[in-house]
Amino acid sequence: MDITINVQLNEPDKQELIKILKCTEANLESTLENYGKASLEEYIRMFLGQKVFSRGSDLLEYRLLLLIEKVFENTIPDEQDVCRLFQIPSSRSRGLIRSVMSKFQHELKPAIDGTLKNVVISAVIDENEGDNKRIVVINSENLVEELNRIIASVDGTLPPVSKKRGMVSTYQIMASSYITLCEQLNIEIEEENINE
């Protein structure tokens, strides 16, 4: 079914949306189209009685699930993205993401695994520490918790992914934990670049 809608925006609102959605004026329309798909899906499921919520928190969780699927292209957004879109503080956005990852863990498994895989792939050797440690920027404590859950499920004696001292969102992964994460997330690694 092809549906077309027309939305009137004044210039200040348009500019504010561009900032909030982190897009350009040229792709604002296509960006809003993805949000429109998510909201229309929400209404259709409600009309059909498939997703009717009595609690506001359930509605927000379902709304975030739809945004993950339709807008974030099956990746888990960071807390700042959720803060910006839902107009809530970071502590609430962290809790909302955690709830969605838990409640919809089966539906979101590919999104969670794909996001974690991208995080681990983006880790680079810490030049100040040598080959036995990697560093990575992670803007979501939920993802750090999920990585540590994977490590602990394999071997509880491995070092956790931990915040690098003096950095806001930079984390370190020791070589043994990095290898474990790569194995669990099916990431090919070059063994010569990893020292225990």
What does this structure look like?
This protein has helices at 11-21, 28-47, 56-70, 79-86, 90-103, 109-121, 141-154, 175-184, and strands at residues 124-125, 133-137, 162-163, 170-174. With 196 residues, it is an alpha+beta fold. The protein has two domains: 11-105, no CATH class; 113-193, Roll (Endonuclease I-creI). The protein has a four-stranded antiparallel sheet. Strand 3 and strand 4 form a beta hairpin. The radius of gyration is 20 Å and the shape is globular. The N and C termini lie far apart (56 Å).
Q: How many angstroms does the end-to-end distance come to?
A: 56 Å
Task: Give Rg in angstroms.
Answer: 20 Å
Task: Report the sheet-strand fraction.
Answer: 5-15%
State mean pLDDT (0 to 100 scale): 90
Structural domain tally: 2
Measured as a percent range, the helix fraction is 40-55%
Q: How would you describe the shape?
A: globular
Oligomer: single chain
> Which ranges are low-confidence, i.e. pLDDT below 50, for 5 or more consecutive residues?
none
Summarize the structure.
The chain is built from eight helices and four strands. The protein is an alpha+beta fold and 196 residues long.
Which terms would index this structure?
alpha+beta, 2 domains, 4-stranded antiparallel sheet, single chain, 54% helix, 7% strand, Endonuclease I-creI
List the helices and strands and how they pair.
Elements: H1 11-21, H2 28-47, H3 56-70, H4 79-86, H5 90-103, H6 109-121, E1 124-125, E2 133-137, H7 141-154, E3 162-163, E4 170-174, H8 175-184
Antiparallel strand pairs: 1-2, 2-4, 3-4
